[in-house]
Amino acid sequence: MPSFEGRSGDSAKFRPYVQADNFNTGYPIRYRPADGIIDMETGRNISMSLPTTAKFSSGIPKEFSSAGIHAGVQMTNSVGRKNVYSDLEFREYFVWSNTKDLLQSLCRSSLKNYARQFMSQPFEVSRLLLQVGAFSPSETNSATPSTTFDEDEDDEEDDFFERTGSPRAKRYSSIQRSVPKLRVPVVENTNINPLSLNTIDVMSALISKEGFRGLFRCTNTSFLYTTLFFTIDAWICGFVSPIFGVPDPFFIDIVHSTNPFRSLLLSVASSCITGLLLAPVSLIRTRFIATTTKSQNRSFKRLLGQLTWKQLLVPLRLIVPTINFELSAHLLKTWVPYFLYTRCSVDRYTSPLVFSTVELLTSVVELFVKLPLETLLRRSQVDYLVNDPSCPEALRISENELSVKFGGYHGYFATLYYIYNGTKPVSHNDKFSLEVPSSDTNVGLEGLFRGWRVGLLNVISSWGLSILHDQSLENVEVEKF
């Protein structure tokens, strides 16, 4: 039966006691929830008489003992503030072994990502040139005509006049030799002339025109853009996820989130915001890939130094193409696992075969949805760099600096129609008509999906490698068990 001490009005002392026997000493003890178990013989907490407590209490400094802690709390309360930094373990950040492991992990990850970017850069360069370029049959089947005079023909003319026996011909021949020959300056054609519009032929044309440097152009800027995109996207998700009360999508799958729909919206919105923030970097990347390696001002650092902070914002005409491209690149990838889990109760662990098959089909559909929108984005970027008067002078380029003849940009949906039919709508007195088809061979349905063969090969190979990786992990777990 619990006993009570203290006045009924004193809430601090009105605490129940439970009396029991101490099995070690045989003396009665009292238990009060606020103070723990009290030994009635000594008046101390019984936990202080335990062997482990007695062993370690002798070596505890005074400031870490119970009396020292109570004294420290009273002192900090009297001052009116508490040292909140005492609970943080800052020394772990300055341990050399932890710092060494972190630096090694960062270097290993950076080298692996740079090697992946370096190997895929020739295919990305070829795909972008096919997306923004216009090619004619003469360009794809013949070499660039030379603009200089043929020296053999001039020599034949001189020989003809020399062989003529008339005095007039001799006088003309002497005048011809006394006047220096006028040569037309050589105008180098910077456009590539591929044999066909296949990726391999475009790569061969780049090698013949600019060497291997033309294939691996803009590798550093592409690596920087990819690294910044992943870092900013992860930072935005980590910063906003506590505000919405959802787990971070970068650490916990959306299907295992407490609120999958909010996690889905957070992941897609973060990708779109990151794409808009890095739109100037993407614009510079497109500029470096579309222009020849001999063009001026190809330094990323120098370009950033010549731009003001207002010019580092996304141009208004590029907002819609950028958002649509980011949605096509991330929406299906995140929405399909969410739909499978919420509607069909299928995830990676319960039905691995079904999930992997649907994941492959989703990647294929995503590729064919993304390519036309990427074509629109790249053409709008090149059109902004070439024809837009609001483009900064440091970024502006001329058509002579392009590696291919620009295919043109006629509006968002009108460009899709032009690429598909080879004709573009023209307005005449508020009425639209169609121009005569040009000699551009980069049209038709395949013109909207340039690079789909290499992209499909990349999707299938990545899917196969992920399957092999999962199987290797399962084998390792079985062996460990």
Automatic annotation (TrEMBL):
One cellular component term from this protein's GO annotations in UniProt: membrane
Keyword annotations: Membrane, Transmembrane, Transmembrane helix
Subcellular location: Membrane
TM stretches of this protein: 223-244, 264-284
Region feature Disordered, mapped onto this chain: 136-163
Extent of Polar residues compositional bias: 137-148
Acidic residues bias spans: 149-160
Main location: membrane
Protein name, as recorded: Mitochondrial fusion and transport protein UGO1
Organism listed in the record: Kuraishia capsulata CBS 1993
Organism placement in taxonomy: Eukaryota, Fungi, Dikarya, Ascomycota, Saccharomycotina
